[in-house]
Amino acid sequence: MLATITWWTSSRSASCYSDSSASGRGPSITSTMDFSMPYVERYEVGLEETRVALAAEVFGRYLKPEGGEAVTDVVVPTVVDDACSLLEGGSKDIFGECVRCVKSFLAGAPFAEFERSMYFHRYLQWKWLEAQPVTQHTFRMYRVLGKGGFGEVCACQVRATGKMYACKKLEKKRIKKRKGEAMVLIEKQILQRINSRFVVNLAYAYETKDALCLVLTIMNGGDLKFHIYNMCGADTGLGLERARFYAAQVACGLEHLHKMGIVYRYIKTNYTTLYNMPYI
To answer: Which residues bind ATP (predicted)?
Structure first.
């Protein structure tokens, strides 16, 4: 079953409903979704030393009747009391029952309304498109952006969405000749794990008869070396504030890699590219 449909329809236990939700009153759908997704998820993945403060924020905003976005109409009081008793312990599962109650509410009338809307049919169309295999016919190929040891990088566009990417084509013959199979596989595995706005991300991967293709974030702002010597002038260079801003972005990218257990050794200005001025 489709991921979003599963999410909406999970935990249908009728015992989770309070009397107020059954009588037709209830919080806004936006509030219930915000509670069960970004806020509780942020608590669950937070550091232990910050969990008590995050839990207090969730309680104040969503689990108190006077809260601005309270979901107490669909969570029975005993469930809230049980969660409150676990607050000081900092357990990851404090809000487990509360989330199940909220999802049970969303799986009822809100989901039925969603199914009757145009958005549900549009969602099914996108999920069908998402399930289609990725091949060379998924993209339109444009000019070559650069060349490397195993092949070339060219601009490409997804036919269905029009979004632009950079396609890194690694020729199979060159890979085999240079015994680079392990290196290419490691590169793909690392790119699959990365999820940072300060590091190039892998969007698609496919193969043709002659090449392995990695479809990556397109960096169309030029590299840092070009900006230093051509846009700013070789004598003046970058201004202090701009240099600090770029350094901070590079540090954020390296921090993400280090958290993933990845060491990157090639920090050079010509390997530091800009996505859109002034972002790296």
So the answer is: 177
